[in-house]
Amino acid sequence: MRRRSPIATITRREAVLGLAAVGLFDRAAMAADTETIAFDGLYKSFGVLGFEFSDRVTALRGKAVRMVGYMAPPLKPESHFFVLTREPLAICPFCQSDADWPVDIVVVFMKNETAMVSAGRKVVVTGRLEIGSATDAETGFVSQIRIADAGFSLA
Amino acid sequence: MRAYHWLAAILAAGVAGGSAAAQTIYPIDRAEILEGSRFDFKVEFPNAPTSADVNVTINGKPAAEVLGRPTNFIQSEEGQKHSALWLRGASLPAGRYVVEATQGDNKATVNWDVFATAQPRRAKNVILFIGDGMSVANRTAARILSKGWKEGKYDGELAMDDMPNMALISTSGTDSIVTDSANSASAYTTGHKSCVNALGIYCAKNALTLDHPKVETISEIIKRHRTGMAIGVVTNSEIEDATPASMIAHTRRRSDYNDIVKMFFDVKPDVIMGGGSPNFLPKSTPGTKRTDDLDFIAKFKEAGYTLATTKTEMNAAVTGGAKKLLGLYNTSNIDGAFDLRLAKKGSIAKFPDQPDVVEQTKAAIEMLKGAEDGFFLMVESARIDKYSHSLDWERSVFDTIMLDNAVKVAKDFAGERNDTLIIVVPDHAHAVSIIGTYDDDRPGQLLRDKLGTYADSVPPNYGPRDADGYPTKVDTSRRLAVVYGSYPDTCDTGRPAMDGERVPAVKGPDGKTNIANEKDCTGPLATRKTGNLPFDANSGVHSADDVILTAMGPGAEKFRGHKPNTYVFRVMAEALALGGK
Ligand SMILES: [Zn+2]
Q1: Is the pLDDT of residue B2 over 70?
Q2: Closest partner CB to B331 (pick from A48, A98, A133)
């Protein structure tokens, strides 16, 4: 899937407005039929040679889901997406790299540009579940599970 | 280094001022090059001159004549504002070489020492232990925790302490005082200094990370002219990470993990063990990090490797007589000794059957020792460094004890054979020190009240040690006070992090500044510390402090006094007599 070039010069005011809009989106989504998924329920097997998605996740493919996790530091500050992780991340610039994400991450593609919150804060993400290997055309980032057309609010 | 060239050019030409940058020659000035080893010769000329405007000589003769092959001149390389003269895969007989690159009135000069190695070969085997980020305080704390301390003396020495030879090693790279693990490990495996994030190359102006001028690694040298000699690479980090990658890789960017896996396959060390399986899996496999369809698990199997994904499979491979092993035990780093033994946090639940570095070392030696022409084994205890980044000193020291137990395995193997050179060396230091002990019985409510210094630094009361020398209880009432000299905004709990590796800081809402991880800011002794690092730092940083190398076996006597990190390569190459065609 192709992502539009993100807005590099997003102002603080626009960012705050974006966050408010996402809050609204999230409340709207919560009213609908939204299933909650958790990091522990993503895979039924998890091994050195690969994973298998859980039956529930497979069944929810394409449906609206809600998920709680930590917002990881962005790959690029102006990125249109962020990475949701099980635990808050500390990334060491000299001993780790982009290649070093935990494997059970969920990539979140935002519906709107949104201000980051602290990586130590939990967020609730709502959006449409996508599964299967996909490479982001813009960054080359490979992901297995994505939440698309997403919004988030603070947990 | 570039400034040095510029100064040399001015002195040689007797002119001052004017020129902004001089031509740059790779390998750089004062390079020590193993006789017959391969290196890419490159000269960069500023302002994109034509070949008619430049001249390059080695010992006064045309470079191509001395190197025995034609050089390749590229005007305005990659469309950039420099021209380049190349000869990839050059090699030279022993001797002193003066390389001069002239461009108009500017002359740049470098000196190379191409060294021979004495015959006969003195060591059949070399085992190089790298304690990533292992500072002196790591060794001291490991000795206190694993051997015990009474009335000013230790109840025993570490295996790495009890070795006859020692040297102080400096670790800087070509571009910076403080190194990272890529260019510091690369100095050990190639004998050439490099720059931050780089492996097996000199950092030139090339845009593509894989195009920079390469220098040969010790694995490649051995594979090229010692067909009967085996190579092992063992780590508890991801196998693509800097230190293990330094055995085989040539890249300007250490995070080129997918390329590094391919380079492992190209060089084919006989035993390869670590974490980091996702970069071996084709992109169609859930859990992969590859961006192509290459299946390196299948490729290694086709090339005759046994695959092990657990300790049980590793041991079965040894019992089954495997000589080529690909062991991948975790999708990320293998868990450290603190979690494997005590806390059971990290990824233990997901990967309950991971070998530790000691068990890996045992298995690797067992598989390699049958090689007719000896073996070269590199073993890294990687998380000593990673845990120091997260200011988690207990985990860092447990992994120092683990490294020491692995050294003991190697010493037991070497025994009385006198044919195995064993080296134990960190790749760089962290700013870490033991300043006393925390004693919960001291009056007061704050962490500082609990700190006893000097006369009040009473001995700690860690729980009894298990058979492998690890304390069985660390969250005790009297604990070592270990402090880090570099830190982001953080909260110090003054206690071990039993519920998982410490995360000292997290990204703030501006996406750049890191702030204290509030998780550590509550609790009886928790102390908020304003960071002393730049605001974008999220963890402790390496330090430029020298590190301690200890060694034994044939060739080890050359380690004395103070040496640069590239000297470690030279001693290994000399012990194995790797010089010559
Ligand atoms: Zn490090």
Answers
A1: no
A2: A48
Q: Is A103 within 8 Å of B509 when comparing Cβ atoms?
A: no
Among A91, A103, A118, select the one facing B508 at the smallest CB separation.
A118
- From B251's Cα to the closest Cα of chain A, the distance in A is 15
Q: Measured between CB atoms, does A11 come within 8 Å of chain B?
A: no
Give the residue from B177, B240, B261, B507 with the most A CB atoms within 10 Å of its CB, the best one to mutate: B507
> Which residue type does B234 have?
V
Cβ contact B508:B547 at 8 Å:
no
Per-residue model confidence as pLDDT tens digits over A3-61:
333 333 333 333 333 343 444 444 444 545 789 999 989 988 889 999 889 999 999 99
For helices B136-147 and B393-414, the axis angle rounded to 10 degrees is 80
Q: What residue of A is the nearest CA neighbor of B331?
A: A48
Q: Which of A126, A146, A147 is nearest to A134 (CA)?
A: A146
CB–CB contact A99 B255 (8 Å): yes
- Residue A73, preceding bond cis, omega within 30 degrees? no
Contacts of B553 (CB under 8 A, 6+ apart): B123, B414, B418, B419, B420, B421, B422, B575
pLDDT tens digits for range B512-562 = 788 999 989 998 899 999 999 999 898 999 999 999 999 999 999 999 999
How is residue B238 written in tokens? 């991801």
Dihedrals φ, ψ of B56, to 5°? -125, 125
* Residue A9 to chain B, least CA–CA distance (Å): 14
The band of A74, judged by pLDDT with boundaries at 50, 70 and 90, is low
Chain length of chain B:
581
Which chain B residues are Cβ-neighbours of A50 within 8 angstroms?
Answer: 281, 285-288
Ranking A61-65, A140-144, B68-72, B310-314 by mean pLDDT, the lowest is: A140-144
Residue of A nearest to B347 (CA): A102
In chain B, the percentage of residues whose pLDDT exceeds 90 is 90
Q: How far is A30 from chain B (nearest CA, A)?
A: 25
- Measured between CA atoms, the residue of chain B closest to residue A98 is B255
Q: Tell me how far CA of residue B360 lies from CA of B188, B233, B315, B410, in angstroms.
A: 21, 10, 9, 11
Return the structure tokens found at B541: 């940083």
Torsion-angle region of residue B32: left (phi > 0), alpha (psi -120 to 50) or beta? beta
Q: How far apart are CA B306 and CA A33, in angstroms?
A: 49
φ/ψ of B189, rounded to 5, equals -95, -10
Give the model confidence (pLDDT) of B141-162 as tens digits: 999 999 999 999 999 999 999 9
How much is the pLDDT for A103? 74
B186, B200 in Cβ contact below 8 A? yes
Q: Round to whole Å and give the CA distance between A49 and B265.
A: 18
* Yes or no, beta carbons of B539 and A73 under 8 Å apart: no
Cis peptide before B27 (omega within 30 of 0): yes
ipTM summary value: 0.81
